[in-house]
Sequence to fold (204 residues):
Amino acid sequence: MNKDQFMAQLHDHLSVLPPEERSELMEDYEAHFTFALQNGKTEEEIAHELGHPAELAKEAIDGRFIPKEPVYWFNPEIPDPGPVQAPVQQQSVRRRSGFTTTMVYIGLCFLNLILVPLLFSFWAVGISLVVSALAGIISPLGVALDYAFGHGFFAAKGYATVALVGVGILLAIASRYVLKALVRISVSYWGWNVRVAKGGTGHE
Fold:
């Protein structure tokens, strides 16, 4: 079997595949023939090494979805069904009575009287961490100013400054995570208040 016979049979056995996939496989075998011919092999030897086209096509098709009915890949007469629209789910809206709304607002008011000051205290801790970190990091500037005013420089001051800078860096790293957590908690708490006030307790 020469190259033309091999490729013709392979093309026929791959006819169940979409044209793009069939062309890609045919190009692979065409490249294999070209490479082998450049290395001194004959077309018959190459075809014998590859195997029967029917077996190769079966391996390529195996595991793929092959429609039972004939598929016309380029038939312009088949109408396009268009995009499929998902069914729209109607959400039921429940309205609260005036008494229930009033009680909800009163409950939120008392709850915020407890939680808002607590949240402010957490923010005060976070801001104090930032201030402490900044003070530690710029402590060498204070030592330099102290030296500039003629108070002298001692080794103890140098060691203390290095320690303060190290502590300041650690506090800066910690304050970053603390502030991110506080922002996330504050936004979530505010959103929960808004949802409860509007009449929902879950995600919209």
Remarks:
- The chain is about 70% helix and 0% strand.
- Residues 155-198 form the longest helix (44 residues).
